[in-house]
């Protein structure tokens, strides 16, 4: 405050002490006073002065000038000075006006001076306040720093307090443990005290007894003393009595002796009493010593008891304090217990669940361990298996690669095979075409046992290179008739040799061509032997069973190339241009001899006719067609057909050789890989035996029969000839044989005719006719013009012989 007072702005002497602050405080007081005045109390500040100035005029001005620098203005006063207006007076009273104005100027000067002084004071005050502010800020910063330091100190204190709290807690825990120990100690001490009290009580009891005994001994000693006194009195009385009685010496001596004896007894008794008394005295002394000792012990115990009581009191105080704390802690503990009570239940359930889970976990852990062991072993196994698998995989990859290569090679080979098969078919067909779609083989059977060869050879075989195995010379009446065919089998040719030559045609049937093999020749020339052979001897099997066996063998082998074949067989015979189903189940019993067709008994059901389907191919309605899968089935069918044929012949009283036997196998092949389809037909025909009518001598039905055979054979040759020449008009279709075989004879069809020759000299004419017929068929294929102008001429020649 002293420094503040030193910084007071300079004031005019008229200004009261207190500086600008006091000025402002005065001003504030004044403004406050004005407010109070406005509220009720009127203050006549400078108004009176102003009025006085206004009214006083020059006097006021002079007064103001006299008090220059000592005038204070309020705001209103200053405003009044600033807003001063000259009073209305006589407009011509200039002197008065001038006085008023000069007075006002003086007041203005005073006011300005005052204001400047106030402003200067304000500036100083401002500077001072600034200084104070800076110092206050500095103080503030200092205080802040101090506060920070104090905060740090407080933090340290807090940490110390926390450490203290922790130490106190530790101490509390220690004290609790001490308390427990003290409680245990107290309990022990209590027990010791109770034991001591009991001991004290027993000692007190003993002491009381001793005291009682002492008192009893004292009374006894008193009584003994009384007795002694009385005894002494009695002795004295006795002495007096002795003295009295001395006179009576004798008696008295006796009495004295007696008395002495009594006295000795009494003395003895007295000594005994004394001894007893001494013993009692000793006992009393001992008891006193014991009492003293007991008293000392009692004092010691009392002191100890006192100490223990003090300690107990302290312990009790401690205990009370601890109990207060314990109560507080117990309250907290109760709260905790309340909180923990719920948690305990949850904890129990959780414990139960945890136990259960732990049990599960332990069992699962065991399982996991076991499984891990298994896993380890399995992993080891897996490793070994992986190794072997990788090796196997490598091998597998190699094998796969090899398989792929092999598959590629296989596909390539299959493609090559297919292409080769196509090529083979093409070449095979080309070869056959080159050989001729219509070929003629000649077979000469050996002489039978009942036939005589005679001296002249009927048949000879040219040995020239170009005619070797192809030429045959027939000698009749010394004249040699040379013929050339595609192949000539002499009498030594076996069935196998013959089949080798025709096996290619069988292959053609599987390739989808129509193949027709038939045997032509005179009766007994060996047609049936060639076609059917002898069923009892396998090596003598004919072309039909051999061809069918080959068909099934090849079809089986072609399965690998994707070919699937369906075979359907039918067997019929044509007798006198009447068709007979040889596989019909009612064939044997169904012949009604009363019903005939062309003189032939026919089935009771109906005669078999040949019709054309939508493609123009002939078929026989109701003909038995059997699906066949093996050559065995075929052989059984052939047996059935042979049986039906012989039964039919017997019933008709005809020989089976006079009917045409036609075995037809329709082959449907499909290749799913190459999507190829083939439809082949294999016709194996054993024609009826031709004969020279002139020589046979047949008449009636037999003649008609022979005429039919020759006619049908002539028709067949004509049809073959016409088809080979691709003539539009095919003659002689009225024969059921040609009608049935026509689709198998033209175009790409393969036709093979066996001409069977008998070496019997008696049938040389028939052989010549057969050879000529075969030569005509052979000639049409190779383009040789017919040597005969008309088939009729041949027929007529055949018929005329
Ligand atoms: N190549 C041959 N080797 C041995 N014996 C044969 C040969 N050809 C035919 N024969 C025998 O000749 C006899 C007549 O043969 P086969 O019955 O086959 O003649 P065919 O032409 O069928 O007569 P048909 O026209 O009357 O039926 C039979 O006993 C047959 O065994």
From TrEMBL:
It comes from the Eukaryota. The keyword Nucleotide-binding applies. Residues 1-58 are annotated as: Disordered. ATP binds at residues 521-528. Keywords: ATP-binding, Coiled coil, Microtubule, Motor protein, Nucleotide-binding. Residues 18-40 have a biased composition (Basic and acidic residues). Transmembrane segments: none annotated. Residues 119-171, 200-269, 298-325, 354-416 form a coiled coil. Residues 437-780 form the Kinesin motor domain. One of its GO terms (molecular function) is ATP binding. Pfam families: Kinesin. One of its GO terms (cellular component) is microtubule. Belongs to the TRAFAC class myosin-kinesin ATPase superfamily. Kinesin family. KIN-14 subfamily. PANTHER family: KINESIN-LIKE PROTEIN KLP-3 (PTHR47972), PROTEIN CLARET SEGREGATIONAL (PTHR47972:SF45). This is Kinesin-like protein. It comes from Flemingia macrophylla.
